[in-house]
Amino acid sequence: MRFAFYGRVSTEDNQDPASSRAWQITRSRALIESRGGEIVTEFFDVDKSRSIPWQRRPQASALLAELRDPERGFEAVVIGEPHRAFYGNQYGLTFPVFEHFGVPLWVPEVGGPIDPANEAHDLVMSVFGGMSKGERNRIKIRVRTAMSAQAQMEGRFLGGRPPYGYRLGDAGPHPNPAKAADGRRLHRLELDPVAAPVVARIFAEFLNGHGLFAIAEGLTRDGIPSPSAHDPERNRHRVGIAWSKSAVRAILTNPRYTGHQVWNRQRKDEVLLDVDDVGLGHTTKLRWNTEEQWVWSDAVAHPPIVSPEDFQATQETLSARGGRQTDKTVRRTRQPYQLRGLLFCGLCERRMQGHWSNEAPYYRCRFPQEYALANHVMHPRNVYLREADIAPRLDRWLGRLFRPSNVERTVEALAAAHDLDRPGAAEIVALRRQIADSERRLGLHRAALEAGADPAVVAGWIRQEQTRRSAAEQRLARIPVARPRRLDRESLAAILAELGDLVELLGRADPARKAKIYTGLGLRLVYHPGKRKVLVTSLSDQDPMGYQFVSEGGLEPPCPAKGTSTSS
Q1: Is the pLDDT of residue 215 over 70?
Q2: Which residue, 166, 200, 264, 473, is most buried by CB atoms nearer than 10 A?
Q3: Per-residue pLDDT tens for 506-526?
Q4: Distance between CA atoms of residues 241 and 221, nearest Å
Q5: Residue from 88, 108, 97, 138 nearest 27 by CA
Q6: What pLDDT, on a 0 to 100 scale, did the predictor assign at position 563?
């Protein structure tokens, strides 16, 4: 009998994927080879938590897709360690798929294939799912309790990126004898001789009455590298163009500059993806804890940069500024924007924000002055686009796609792009976006180099981004290609026929409904102020409609409000 092997490993607890795969597949072979079984294909998820449902694990999802294929190349599936494969009620949600397609599932705990009619087998597998969930919860509680005690009583540095202004120093061998024997050592925070004075300057200027923007622009003007530029290895997710208001605020609100170790400022919450379909599982979100939940070290754990009194005064000033209201405070109400989240600036490639002015919806791209100072980008302070200038033309363009003369070509494009039940589809989309983002960042780095930035610093940025892009391309190449199920052309043609005159439908739709239609179509629009054109860059992740200009100029709107500039 030919078998497919499934296994999983999470690297959160520093497991070795190669070793974990080796012992799981060895255990599987010990079960099936005595009965003449042979593993002919493997599905092994790496760096995926057991709490993630099978449908959201790339390799598990690919295995479920293969079950639907009558020519799949194997007759059964073997799992070497159910603890790693199933979590909570995942067995009850997954095994019926194996049963439906007539593919036996073998596990060592029952000594062979699971019998759907055997209540003992079902009970054993359900118990293992509960044990897996309990084990994960016990580990979480034990680790969090230990970290809380280590932070409070020992002031130990618990990992992660050191705050700007500090660097890691050696704190001696690890107290665990086994880890110490392996060469593991503890770390502590030490002052960074270059960045620590900058942190002190930020606190001093703020306490002297300077605003966040003024501090950021002053640091950029003086040529002081931003945290991302100062240590690119520590901040690979940042472009590092210049100091920003958010970076200054993050420094001013970090209590570790007082010399105390502070832990548990953030927590990870598991939130249901869909409350109406709990089988989809959870997603993890980082959320800020209240100050009462922070864990402070009992004593000073590392050299302070600011005094506790100055830090407290800074927090009181920030709180007073954030909470006060004046007569000039603008109280905005939620307004409908048809292109919310879909329109991007062609100069900086950032998403344009909705802006309601003169009783009409606009879209605005405000380029922060500190970024312009550092990067010398030819970008107006404000770029505006009026919704009324683009939405009707977009509707007419969409209507042309669905005219009788174009329906056949549109159906062909949609049929080629519509991919149902594709294993790893979400990961494929994420990797493609990561590659595109790397290309965008590389372009920004090259522009910075041409503008006179330090060649050594920019070269480091470029190498890091090229490494990031290469890693994403390699991961994309490793995703198995499964045979997709496509919507047949007859069904698509019938759907389009029922839509009727799309332009008329869109013209009658309210703005909120039109926004959902545009989002559902996967539209991405880029506004080029110099050309006064809006470019529809894709209607799906595979760009089936190609690149089309939906406007022919004339998109230079009047200044929407006094004191603002028009796009150039």
Answers
A1: yes
A2: 166
A3: 666 777 778 877 776 677 888
A4: 12
A5: 108
A6: 37
Under a CB-based contact definition with an 8 Å cutoff, are residues 22 and 36 in contact? Answer: no
Instruction: Report the interhelical angle of 245-252 vs 196-207 (nearest 10°).
Output: 90
Q: Of 484, 482, 517, nearest to 416 (Cα)?
A: 484
Give, in order, the Cα–Cα distances in Å from 30 to each of 7, 35, 79, 85.
15, 9, 11, 18
Q: Take residue 510 and report the two structure tokens written for it.
A: 């309210």
Six token digits for residue 450: 């041409």
79, two tokens: 């799992």
**Residue given tokens 């149902």 in the structure block:** 420
Query: What is residue 559's predicted lDDT score, i.e. its pLDDT?
Result: 42
Cα separation of 219 and 153, whole Å?
Answer: 37
**Calpha distance 17→160 (Å, rounded):** 22
pLDDT higher at 568 or 442: 442
Of 395, 306, 381, 302, nearest in space to 348 by CA: 381
Residue 368: band (very low, low, confident or very high) from pLDDT cuts 50, 70, 90: low
Separation of alpha carbons 90 and 78, rounded Å: 16
Residues 386-395 have pLDDT tens digits of: 888 888 888 8
Q: What are phi and psi of 387, to 5 degrees?
A: -60, -35
- The β-bridge partners of 533 are 528
Percent helix / strand / coil, the chain, rounded to 5: 45, 15, 35
Q: Do 480 and 424 touch, CB atoms closer than 8 A?
A: yes
Indicate whether 369 pLDDT > 50: yes
